[in-house]
Amino acid sequence: MSPLVKIRSERDSMSAVERRIADFILENALLLRDYSSQQLANALGISQSSVVKFTQKLGFRGYPDLKYSVGEAIARDNGDADNVATAADASDDPPGTVLWRRKNEAEEATRLINSRETVERTVQAIDAAGRSGKVFIIGLGEDDIYARGFALKLSLLGILAIYQFDAARMAANISTAQPGDVLLAFSEHGKHPGLCKIARFFHERRGQVITVTRHTSNPLRALADIALVVSAHDDLPYIQSLVYQSSLQHLLDTVFVSLCESDDTRHAQLVANLDRIQQTLDS
Predict the structure, then answer these.
(1) pLDDT in tens, 174-216
(2) Are residues 135 and 210 in the same domain?
(3) What secondary structure, in 3-state letters, does the chain show?
(4) Chain segment 111-155, per-residue pLDDT in tens
(5) How many domains is the chain partitioned into structurally?
(6) Do residues 121 and 74 share a domain?
(7) Ranges for the SIS domain (predicted)?
């Protein structure tokens, strides 16, 4: 994994000081070769040991190793250093260009931090629950849009999806959960106490909990059997929300496509349902 992608993907789970270091490196990747660890520390007004700990936490032997790795990554990008150097300078690019760049960066980071094993476990859990049980899906606020959309996709595959946007109603629905059923809980920040209670109730029913949150340490993610995470950040709130939504949708589409391709019967069910829907709309 490129060190810049790694830094970007881990940023949401970093401390405030670590985020300052990360942002400096991401915004000044081309200039990093001219900075010693002490000079970087001085530029940020922090201790040199903070810089060293930051690099080691990312898995590098030390700051020189990180600096060399960043230089190699830039060289591999066919000398496209201008894009790296100006990545954070929105004033030099049309807004659409900056947004596309941020989306591409976030989607790549999200793809890398959700390992193939994690995605496969998610697909297997949903597939198994769809064959002999139920998939419960909930999202509150803006997360409801993605929870509802994913519930519809599962229903097209012939998977029984019980969708709710109300925590109290979902708590009641969970009384019908059986061992092997799956709960998909969508929460960007993973801090809603109601969702955490629902996850605990679901564990009592011996079901599997799959959470979809930001790539941060949060109470809901801590309760997950399988945690899908989204990496997305930007200094501008309106950009950050769009980047998060784009990366989340890309992650969900990856799971959906994997479900389609893992079983010919499910794919046939999808085609049949789409045809039935079209006939209904044409009538």
Answers:
(1) 999 999 999 999 999 999 999 999 999 999 999 999 999 998 8
(2) yes
(3) CCHHHHHHHHHHHCCHHHHHHHHHHHHCHHHHHHCCHHHHHHHHCCCHHHHHHHHHHCCCCCHHHHHHHHHHHHHHCCCCHHHHHCCCCHHHCCHHHHHHHHHHHHHHHHHHHCCHHHHHHHHHHHHHHHHHCCEEEEECCCHHHHHHHHHHHHHHCCCCEEEECCHHHHHHHHHHCCCCCEEEEECCCCCCHHHHHHHHHHHHCCCEEEEEEECCCCHHHHCCCEEEEECCCCCCHHHHHHHHHHHHHHHHHHHHHHHHHCCHHHHHHHHHHHHHHHHHHHC
(4) 888 989 999 999 999 999 999 899 999 999 999 999 999 999 999
(5) 2
(6) no
(7) 122-265
